[in-house]
Amino acid sequence: MSEVLVAGARPEQARAIAAALDALGHRIAITASRAEALELLGERAFALTLLGGHGPGPDGLRDLEAAARKRGVTVVLLPPADRGEGVGDADRLALMRSEALLRGAFEAAPIGKTVLDDAWRIVRANRAFTLLVEREPEELLGLEITRLARPRDGSRLAGALGRVAGGDLGPDDPDRSGFDVHLRSRSGSEVWACAYLSSIDPTEVGEPLLMIQWVDLTPRRHADQARAALQVEHTARAQAEARVERLNKRQRFADALETTSLSELLPELALRLAEQFQAQLAEVRIDGPEHERATVVRASERRIVSGGGDSVALPAGAWQEMPLAIDGSAIGALRLVPSAEGSFADADRSLLGDLADRAALAIRRAQLHEQEHRIADTLQRSLLPTRLPDVTGLVLASHYDPAEDVGEVGGDWYDVFELGSARVGIVLGDVAGKGIPAASTMGDLRSVTRAFALGDAQSRGPGNVLTRLNRHQLARGAEEMFTVLYAVIDTARGTLAWANAGHPPPLLHSRSRPGRYLEGGDGLIGIDDIDYGDLREPVAAGETLIFYTDGLVERRGESLDAGLERLARTVAAGPDHPQELCRHIVGAMVPTGRRAHDDVTIVVARIS
């Protein structure tokens, strides 16, 4: 809203000008004092100065005009206060000029302006308002102003207009300093404006009028909306990043759950728990059976700080704990002491709950695998020979070592039995598969193989025994496949007869000549109906036969030939006595780290 300074006007002039200016919504400052007029020009910014010849005097009038123009204020000179007959006509002419000038200021105002009658119909609207609502002036004349507002805003506008018309828009009224209105434009685009309401004194203009000035807020609203959208985007991005980080944390924690060895799993869980929460201390506790101590593993700063036994006492409030539960039954707990700098928020507790669920499943899986390992190992050992037979002219030794990895316990077996006074049968087999099923199948095959070998007065050759074993397996319709080697050593005749169904070849070692593998044989048992043939080799005193399963010579990422060459070199460098040679082979061929991956079975027979 612009302000006009009126200085030096006669009282009747000042009243007429004030009435006209009020109708157009301008504020007015009236003074007859030159000093006050100069002071006002120095303090406030006026859009227009009306100077009359009444009051300040000629010199004062020139000073005021100069001061106003110096400040860039438009100056309009009112006619002098003559006493003749033409004075009234001159005043009316000056007032007409002033009104024309003020109408121009109304039309050229940069903000929208509307003058309303007592029914809130538009009687006058400036160009800024017509552009704001994208309508022609003729369309707006006589239009009720509330029809240009959205329904909700129109109700508020009507209420404010009623209070202004009744003189009730007091200093505490929330609408006194303007309020936002959502207007309807012709194109339907959003138009937001702040409406400032005022009344025009009806005694000056003959009828009650209302003035609304409209400040276009659309650019600000669009900027606010853009900022809000950006904030929503930032919030969504932050939430997405938080979810990704949460998933990454879960995945990093899940990587620790792959092992099925409880002795490896618990320390890794404690380390990962401390890392995920940057905790001062992290603990994994597994409850033991009744009357037994719990298993407790603690980690801090990427190292295990304790293992086994009860937890060290700490203040009750220091720990954040989440139970480990399977099917509603507690099996232990995850606990941590948050870092001194950080806090433990609801999101952290939720994550700890997720990790506890995963950890509980992994621990139970490891416990079941270890239980299966013990059962399979016990079953295998119970089916292996408790002692080796005493055979004339032959020294025997054996070694069996199950895989340490629960998931790798397989179906390796061996059997050694007498076939008369100077003959011995040696069987080595390897059932495809792992765990209790493989061990159970191994027990069945061991019994059937021995039965076939001892039939017909122990006269069946190795090929005949394997042929019968293969047909027995095919007749069962069993899906298991396995390798097997059956050898018969006759020390009286100095011969070795054998049949091989896909098993690694035996090694014949002698100090007098380089060791060599006894190749030959046919396919695996349980695939096709095969007539297995006998293979023969003379053996003499001082020679040693080494029978074994693939766990001794196979290494991941290495060819089988490399393993066979390594075994031959190891045997050549080893002692002669079979038992000592077994220990030498195991120590050289099976490093501690490899014992986790497969069963290892060896039978050594030395011709004496």
Classify the secondary structure makeup into a structural class: alpha+beta
Strand content: 15-25%
Quaternary assembly: single chain
Overall mean pLDDT stands at 81
Q: Order of strands in the sheet with the most strands?
A: 6-5-9-8-7
Number of strands: 24
Taking the alpha carbons of the first and last residues, their distance comes to 124 Å
Main sheet properties = 5 strands, antiparallel
> Whole-number radius of gyration?
53 Å
Task: Walk me through the structure.
The chain is of the alpha+beta class. It is 40% helix and 24% strand. It has a 5-stranded antiparallel beta sheet with strand order 6-5-9-8-7. Strand 5 and strand 6 form a beta hairpin. The longest helix is centred in the middle third of the chain and has 38 residues. The termini are far apart. About 1% of the residues have low confidence.
Pick out its properties.
rod-shaped, five-stranded antiparallel β-sheet, 608 residues, single chain, 24 strands, 15 helices, alpha+beta
Fold blueprint:
Elements: E1 3-7, H1 11-23, E2 27-31, H2 34-43, E3 48-51, H3 57-70, E4 74-77, H4 87-108, E5 112-116, E6 122-125, H5 127-133, H6 137-140, H7 151-165, E7 179-184, E8 190-200, H8 202-205, E9 209-216, H9 218-255, H10 262-277, E10 281-286, E11 295-300, E12 303-307, E13 320-326, E14 329-337, H11 346-383, E15 394-401, E16 411-418, E17 423-431, H12 435-458, H13 462-476, E18 482-490, E19 495-501, E20 507-509, E21 516-517, E22 535-538, E23 544-548, H14 560-572, H15 578-589, E24 600-607
Parallel strand pairs: 1-2, 1-3, 3-4
Antiparallel strand pairs: 5-6, 5-9, 7-8, 8-9, 10-11, 10-14, 11-12, 13-14, 15-24, 16-17, 17-18, 18-19, 19-22, 20-21, 20-23, 23-24
